[in-house]
Amino acid sequence: MRVNTSSETQILAELDARTDVRLLDSEPLSAHTTLRLGGTPRAYLRAETTAAVAECVRALDAAEVPVLVLGGGSNLVVADGSVGDSVDDGELDFVVVAVRCEAIDISPGGLVRAEAGATWDDLVARTVEAGMGGLECLSGIPGSVGATPVQNVGAYGVEVAQVLRRVRVLDRVSGKDEWLEPSELGLEYRTSKLKGNDSGLVLEVEFTLHPDGLSEPIAYRELAARLGAEQGERVPAAKAREVVLELRAGKGMVLDAGDHDTWSAGSFFTNPVVPAAEFDAVRAKVAKALGDEAAEKMPAFDVMGGGSGEAGVKLSAGWLIERAGFRKGYPGEAAPMRLSTKHTLALTNRGHARTKDLIALAREVRSGVEDAFGVTLHPEPVWVGCTLSGES
């Protein structure tokens, strides 16, 4: 680990002197990620206002100090001392700026503004309680508001892009602090122009919601059935939120410190999109392995694929994982990292896992699906100090 320079020490002291910043020493990231994995950074700054977040990042960037901006920690795989080619003794060569600005403002007409550090599900709950519809299908998703446009977070047939009004972004290269329209963000399935690079820092997010208290049109078949509604129907947002939380809890996807099935990064692999021209070959491999009936029933949805502008077919990662032979709870009770006992799309820490254990299981699952069906799964989380071999 690189020793802090005198200038870095001075910068940290000056930031710590602010009333809206706290400097913590020897703060392991395993205490701040939902996977409970991660080593200890050089320093940990808790920034409690948008001004503090911006100033911390600007000051450290100017001094060329490596920075990890930390939101809710729900979508991170962080190296620790178990990953020998990445870090030594679990020490991480960067300073963490934890985004903890949490203000939320809800206007009667449906305009909602939230600072990046606000807890996402707190925002959803408050909008539903205020009689606003639009976010209810995204209930129970862990993490912070600032991460939602970066990932274009989605669940149960709704994506953030559908209700996003604009995003306040600090450009760490130019220094500009400005509001960007959704059309400027390159929003696609579980991604945006903000994902995969550190140049844009989200400070605030605005949404346009339905002031009539009704949900987005119910698009997801399982949710519609549980609601007793037709697909495309709008229902009371509070009822939709209630059922979504029940569905997520049944899959171990609502955070619960006492339930190791929730010690995860959520759905670990994105649903793969294959070019339309390659879909028949995939279906043929499924038929060969599982039979014609399984191939016909395989979940598949026509989409525009992966930013290429070409037609694609979106498949179900969970379905592929299960049909490749990986069952709930794989590889068994003795393993420190297992697939969730409730569904196969979450890789879960059973209480004593290390980052190397997660990497090993993720590689095994990805290779198994590729060998069986010729489909490559891509992980959704952001990787810090480590990688999944072969993943760009």
CATH class of the largest domain: Alpha Beta
Number of discrete domains: 3
Poorly predicted regions are none
Structural Rg: 21 Å
Query: What is the residue-averaged pLDDT?
Result: 94
Helix content: 25-40%
- The sequence of SSEs as H and E is HEEHEEEEEHHEEEEEHHEHHEEHEEHE
Instruction: Using the 3D structure, state the CATH architecture of the largest domain.
Output: 2-Layer Sandwich
Structural class: alpha+beta
What do we call the CATH topology of the largest domain? Uridine Diphospho-n-acetylenolpyruvylglucosamine Reductase, domain 3
Q: Give the CA-CA distance, first to last residue.
A: 25 Å
The neighbouring-strand order within the major sheet is 6-7-12-10-11
Key features of this structure:
globular, 18 strands, 22% strand, UDP-N-acetylenolpyruvoylglucosamine reductase, Uridine Diphospho-n-acetylenolpyruvylglucosamine Reductase, domain 3, single chain, 392 residues, 3 domains, Uridine Diphospho-n-acetylenolpyruvylglucosamine Reductase, domain 1, alpha+beta, Uridine Diphospho-n-acetylenolpyruvylglucosamine Reductase, domain 2
Describe this structure in words.
It is a single chain. The chain has 392 residues and is of the alpha+beta class. The protein folds into three domains: 94 residues, Uridine Diphospho-n-acetylenolpyruvylglucosamine Reductase, domain 2 (2-Layer Sandwich), CATH 3.30.43.10; 147 residues, Uridine Diphospho-n-acetylenolpyruvylglucosamine Reductase, domain 3; 125 residues, Uridine Diphospho-n-acetylenolpyruvylglucosamine Reductase, domain 1 (Alpha-Beta Complex). It is built from ten helices and 18 strands. The strands form six sheets. It has a five-stranded antiparallel β-sheet with strand order 6-7-12-10-11. Strands 1-2-5-3 form a four-stranded mixed β-sheet, with helices on one face. The mean pLDDT is 94.
